[in-house]
Known about the structure:
Blueprint lengths: L7 E2 L2 E10 L2 E8 L4 E7 L8 H15 L9 E7 L2 E7 L3 E3 H5 L6 H20 L12 E4 L4 E3 L39 H4 L6 H17 L9 H10 L5 H4 L5 H10 L11 H9 L20 H6 L2 H14 L7 E4 L5 E8 L6 E7 L5 E5 L7 E6 L1 E6 L6 E9 L6 E8 L7 E12 L6 E7 L2 E5 L5 E5 L3 E6 L5 E6 L7 E7 L4 E7 L5 E3 L5 E6 L9 E7 L4 E7 L3 E6 L5 E16 L6 E2 L6 E6 L5 E6 L9 E6 L6 E5 L1 E5 L5 E5 L7 E5 L6 E3 L7 E6 L5 E7 L6 E6 L6 E2 L20 E5 L5 E5 L6 E2 L8 E5 L5 E5 L6 E7 L5 E7 L10 E6 L5 E17 L3
Antiparallel strand pairs: 1-2, 2-3, 3-4, 4-6, 5-6, 7-8, 8-9, 10-53, 11-12, 12-13, 13-14, 15-16, 16-17, 17-18, 18-19, 19-20, 20-21, 22-23, 23-24, 24-25, 26-27, 27-28, 28-29, 30-31, 31-32, 31-53, 33-34, 34-35, 35-36, 37-38, 38-39, 39-40, 41-42, 42-43, 43-44, 45-46, 46-47, 48-49, 49-50, 50-51, ...
Helix pairs in contact: 3-5, 3-9, 5-8
Amino acid sequence: xxVATGTRLGSYEIVSPLxxxxxxxxxxxxxxxxxxxxxxKVLPEELFGDADLVARFGREAKALAALNHPGIAAIHAFxxxxxxxxxxxxxxxxxxxxxxxxxxKVPLRxxxxxxxxxxxALAAAHERGVVHRDLKPENLFVTSDGRVKILxxxxxxxxxxxxxxxxxxxxxxxxxxxxxxxxxxGYMSPEQVRGKPADARSDIFxxxxxxxxMLSGKRxxxxxxxxxxxxxxxxxxxxxxxxxNQSLPAGLERIVRHxxxxxxxxxxxxxxxxxxxxxxxxxxxxxxxxxxxxxxKPRLGLALALAGILAAAALGYxxxxxxxxxxxxxxxxxxxxxxxxNARFAPDGQTVVYGAAWDANPIEVFLTRPxxxxxxxxxxxxxxxxxxxxxxxxxxxxxxxxxxxxxxERLGTLARVxxxxxxxxxxxxxxxxxxxxxxxxxxxxxxxxxxxHRIELPPGKVLYESRFPIHTPRVSPKGDAVAFFEEEVRFxxxxxxxxxxxxxxxxxxxxxxxxxxxxxxxxxxxxxxxPEPGVSHSVVSVQAVSLSGKNRILMRYPGPLExxxxxxxxxxxxxxxEFESHLVGLGDDAKVGRELSWLDGxxxxxxxxxxxSLLFTESEEGGGPNRAIYLxxxxxxxxxxxxxxxxxxxxxxxxxxxxxxxGAKGALVLLPVGVGSPRRLEPEGLKGVxxxxxxxxxxxxxxEERIPDQPARTFVLAxxxxxxxxxxxxxxxxxxxxxxxxxxxxxxxxxDAGGVVAIFPNDGGAPSNVPGLEAGSLPIxxxxxxxxxxxxxxxxxxxxxxxxxxxxxxxxxVREFAPADAAGVATxxxxxxxxxxxxxxxxxxxxxxxxYVVSGLK
Length: 858
């Protein structure tokens, strides 16, 4: 090691050495600016003058910076200090997988947990076009709380192999052209051994070698010399895992073998598929691991005591307890990359009709069958499927299919068309859902009228109406009721309700989220997907609830599953989702944005006036049960955890964050960004769920009260105390994103129940509308001069942001943008912009879906 303890490298003080390799010496260091400990990787002195290596060091640092994933060691900075180049990373506490393996094989459930984490991280890297090329136990770090991190993505060693009898040769990393060997011998793929280019499938082979070693305690490929090891990789299969680990399920052996195929084309197609196959063997997937094959014999004394009937009963109990449940059978139907909107079985129970937007193309209707991997387009562009008539096979389809600012809210024109094709016959506009009655004669529709969400059967006859969004309504097999989810926005609940033809409503249960529903063939149960109380939000349970409200679990799965339909024989049509949320920063002269996401569910909250500070909430697994609020620089620097809850706004001086506690009665809390104590706000006379924003003076808040079954109300609250004053009549609310208050604090842009923008003076005068501004437009922020609003209207790509003059309605296009990879992206769900319009941050969700037919769910 060449850097002494106590040495200052820029703002980093070296504390102690951590390790060294051919392309870096790693030290524990103290970041003096942010007062935290980090890991600093430094190029060795003998490599200072190698311009190619220095350039490669920088390129790899940039590649790593793009890989924001909890399973990949995070990069904080890449800096040049004198003639040294520093790669600053998060400091991990724990041990490498190599150190873990020093004690032998890893216990089965722990090995599966590690493997799923590694596969998920690899999948995230591969989606960014980054291939590791040197996956091995030394580059896998197990933290003290059981998380696995992949280290050194793309930073292979540069020392050339010596011609000795080594089976763990160092790595060559110069160049990626054919003929250059990259990787560590023993974990290299056959194509790497041959010096051929390595792609993502090469990482899958290396992953298979690592998984084999975790399960067996022995290396998959190891010979007495380098040549012997290379020969084994090219020509031999490792010994059966059952030899060293008899407790392994047969399915796991097949997964490992599939990873270790000699030909890349015969391996798993993606790390996503590897993770999915492994998850199907874990307890959270609803598929139990087979039992240990040998059970220890009881002691003789105990066996004698348990004689006669007691012995028989005990043995019977043990036999039942150790019998593995039958495994559900999964058959994949779709293989392209994109979003699946809706899918239904045709009357024959085999043909599946679905709408999907593949490869960033417009939504289209397709037909497929389980015996064929191909899907046939029906010739319906910009269209999706609502339902298939159970008697005639006639399709109810959505034409001019579009999304709102929320990617899962879709609507279009209801039309009827034969399943064999033909010209659609339009029926009704602005429909969100539709379903056939069992006799195939009538259609039930769900649509929005005057800001209210309605269920109508037949169209025009209202069965149910609500202020809250209604999702996936389905007519019962008897035609006497409609089941649906009602999303009570901002109240963290989604009741599952049943309404009969007379309009009588019952609630069968409630969840914090919804993932579609369908009726069982006999009409006695409703099958749906949703998180369970007390279970991780990232685990979706496939459940069945009876008409009396009795619930049972059919399967648990670590990720979103959509219940599309149930066939007459009980087979379930499922949609498996890969969900990602992204925050992207975009300067006024930038064509490619900077990824600013952090964990697995970043949700946009606020952007400072100068565009340098971003506030966001981690709302998925990474955020924990109470969610987590972060503040980070838009230059890509690491985020700072502010506290728990939902982030709402950053104070003008950036000293405080306005947040909301979770739950139906969540209170407002001021969280200090630096030193200080949280301050709970309890405005006199107000209750229920609140949201809000700071006035420009930082001394007042604009707050919104939302109580179930009552219209929103807006108030002005002085932080010094006192009773809040009413700003607008009931029914006006704050926009979902942005700063509705003008720079001088005198005007506020609110939205009514129909989505129309109204400008309210702060002194209590009459409101005014913006000429020509259509309903559904979101006022994002006022311009610096207070004369115009930045306005966004969701739905479709590319997104367009307009500058609209409040007095005249004159509009000007400010920016047009879209994600670089738009597959699975329906719309930009939210954005914020600085008052000068020079920097914006946008938020979008990516949903990559696949359809499966699952048999055996009982």
